[in-house]
Each structure stands twice: as structure tokens, then as C-alpha cells.
């Protein structure tokens, strides 16, 4: 099997000093919503599509948070496919809709306070989520 490089679009959905995380079916780990960008797809549209597909929420606006890549984003899927991920991460705190987990990929959707993030995170989201929480902490969001 060969190692591929894949580009993803992800969204850190947050509100009231909490972040929305999904528990994935394939590895039982928690992560933010997101997935691969399809050929020819506009990155922002991919992020909105993934957010809706995985959470049932519709983004009213997205803000580019950062582009994350490097050795920390190397991942081996349960089917043994190996990838180096380039993750284009947006944030969103303006959305509508009702939470509805995508049955084929998501076990659970849950809001977590910034200081109470679960330990079993998907390792590929850790760099972006850590930076996001640090940014919120500097703004005074959600920490006593």
C-alpha cells in the first residue's frame, strides 16, 4: 500500500465556551467535524458540506483558522490506508439546525467545555484544537 497526501476541510464548531466534538465510528476517538475535499470542490463548501453531513448543523459563516500539516498529521486508517493530511481548519460559531449525527461515521456528538476535552482525541486534530483552545484562553473565553 502506498502513502498518500490528502487535503481536508474541517470546522471547529463552538458556542458558549464549548466546542462540538464527534466520536468517530472507525477508531472511537473524538474529533471536530471535517473530511476530504472532493476534486474541484471549493474548500469552504467542503467544510460546510462536512459540517452538515456529520452534525446536521448549517454554517452561517466560517472563519479560516489555519492550515495544519506535517508529521503530526500522518494517519493509518483501520483499513491500513496511510495518509499525510493537510487540514484546512475553519471555525464557526454562527450556525443553525439541530444536532444529528451521521449514522455511517459518527457514534456520538457532544459539546465539551474547553477545559474538559476528552483524552481520546484523534491525534490528527490535536495541533489545531490545542491552538484553538489556547487562542480562546488568551481571549478570556471559558476559563476561570
Polypeptide structure, described:
The chain is α+β, with helices and mostly antiparallel strands and 144 residues long. The protein has a single domain (3-139), classed as Alpha-Beta Complex (Nucleoside Triphosphate Pyrophosphohydrolase), CATH 3.90.79.10. 19% of the residues lie in helices and 45% in strands. The chain contains 2 helices and 8 strands. Strands 1, 2, 3, 4, 5, 6, 7 and 8 form an 8-stranded mixed sheet that branches. A hairpin with a 5-residue loop joins strand 2 and strand 3 (30-31). The longest helix has 14 residues, at 126-139. The protein is globular, with a radius of gyration of 14 Å. The model has no long low-confidence stretch (mean pLDDT 92).
What attributes characterize this protein structure?
about 140 residues, 2 helices, eight-stranded mixed beta sheet, about 20% helix, single chain
The CATH class, by name, is Alpha Beta
Number of helices: 2
* Sequence stretches where pLDDT stays below 50 over 5 or more residues: none
Distance between the termini: 48 Å
β-strand percent reads over 45%
- Give helix and strand order, one letter per element, not per position: EEEEHEEEEH
Q: Rg from C-alpha positions?
A: 14 Å
CATH topology: Nucleoside Triphosphate Pyrophosphohydrolase
Shape: globular
Number of discrete domains? 1
- Quaternary organisation of the protein chains: single chain
Q: What's the CATH H-level superfamily name?
A: Nucleoside Triphosphate Pyrophosphohydrolase
What's the CATH architecture?
Answer: Alpha-Beta Complex
Query: Helix content range of the residues, please?
Result: 10-25%
Biggest sheet: strands, sense, closure?
8 strands, mixed
- Structural class, from secondary structure content? alpha+beta
Total number of β-strand segments?
8
- Determine the mean pLDDT: 92
